[in-house]
Write a structure and sequence with these properties.
Length: 152
């Protein structure tokens, strides 16, 4: 290996390490913010319950099986958390219009409103970070993040 190739490899490795550090910082900050947002939603619930609420808020009614698959949680955990959410009046079950034997989980009016209230804190934390960016910088960030996440 010539010296030039070795320097390129070293520079690339250094960049990849720096990227990893920034991704770890983002993941850690996001996790902390998710936990605080979940507590704002309902301090008596585990943060994992708020993950289910967030999924239902973002994507709408779904089956418990699809919710478990989409959140990478086991079905028994989802079932336990959904029962808690139902007991607190945040989630309800409805017959599936496509299959009357199937059941869809959906947020109640209360669950929807509490989600909006809880997310305001999260949105403000991220908005503060981007508020001084001009539109072109924000567009570039969105484009790069989309590329990184594999979204077109």
């Amino acid at each position: 290996m010539d010296n030039y190739t070795h320097n390129e490899d070293t520079a690339r490795t250094h960049l990849e390490i720096k990227l990893g550090e920034q991704l770890n910082a983002l993941i850690s900050a996001s996790h902390g913010l998710n936990v605080r947002t979940a507590a704002r939603f309902d301090i008596t619930l585990q943060p994992a319950a708020f993950l289910l609420v967030r999924w239902l808020f973002s994507f709408g009614p779904t089956s418990a099986t699809a919710l478990a698959e989409s959140t990478a949680m086991d079905r028994s955990s989802v079932s336990r958390l959904v029962n808690q959410l139902k007991g607190l009046g945040y989630v309800k079950s409805e017959p599936s219009p496509a299959d009357r034997r199937g059941v869809l989980l959906t947020l109640t009016k209360l669950g929807n409103q509490k989600t909006i209230d809880a997310l305001k804190e999260k949105e403000s934390a991220f908005y503060d970070r981007i508020s001084k960016w001009d539109d072109s910088k924000l567009e570039k960030f969105i484009e790069m993040l989309s590329d990184f996440n594999g979204y077109e």
